Amino acid sequence: MAAILAAADGCRRSAFRLMLRLPGAREIFVSRERRIPVAEALCVAMATFTSLFFPVLSLWVGASLLGLPHVLSGIRHVSVRRSLHPLTKACIAVSIAVGALTLMHLTSGVPIFVGLFALSMGVEVLASRAGAVPKLFWLATVALGAGAAWRWPYFFVIGVSHLHALSSMSFFSTEARRRGIRVWPLWALSVAAAGVVLVGALDPLFANAAWARSLGPDEVVGILDQMAGGSTPTLLARSLFLYAFSQSLHYMVWLRLMPELDRDSPVPQSFRQALVRLRRDFGRWTVPALVLCAIGGMAMLLGGRSARDAYFVLVYFHIGLEAAGWLRLKLNYGPGHNSRSVPIYAPGHHSTPRPSQIMTRVIIGGSTPARN
To answer: In whole angstroms, what is the distance from residue 22 CA to residue 225 CA?
Structure first.
């Protein structure tokens, strides 16, 4: 493992040396406030590109290689580095068990999932320090949403599938704004990309019969066809793009933007440092979690639809986890709260490293200078 990380960090240092030759790159790398908005724009650009030209392939490979890691990252940033109410944690634990029972065809999961998600969100609202009016508003919203989901479970599954990324984007945005980080590139560019598709500007591209089916397994397109209600080819193509686009953004939030926001140092860390901090958060569960990600990824990549169906059912709990975590963050905490690991570096801190020190650390992959 040490040799692999050393080789990866060597490649990383070489890549950084090349990138720092670009005009303006140094100013971006030394400032978290500049670097994260740029990362947001790049994430949206990458999600748009893959969803336009490789939609099915991005769904297939993305779920296989990034599915379990993004769930692990969500758990890390929502419930390990931040806190949740004990009853919320209990609801999430029961949701995991419900997923397993659903996989064994012992229960119908959706109504139970809806109840557990609504309960966990309601608990966070009631336990918050918000005023009476915000509490009533959010309790009513959760109740109405749960009622609609119970009444129309089919549309609940469709809506969650297409809008699930909003919870992760909202969680990231709430945390970023309270730290003084701009999030408008993420939202403005995402809305623009989705809007262009919804108004039909890209329908000529989607009209190409080979656009979707030649780029990945047909079974994924079949799943989307069911979710789109067996509607027209144009609507199916738009739905496929939006689904692939939202999933790509969802992965990028948990695997790129949130780690960047929560990292202790002001500069990109080495792979060795990333592993050390992962062990600090998960302790003895680190190795089993990494092994699970590796085995699960290969199983989904090679196991076909049955393996991916099992994945989607077993990790359904993280939808409620993210929603409850976002509500807790939004209703409870101002800057500097709700985090067990407060970043060493923060905007305006009196001991912010000098740019020359920061760039030295970027190149050699070390840790940032200690605080005074």
So the answer is: 44
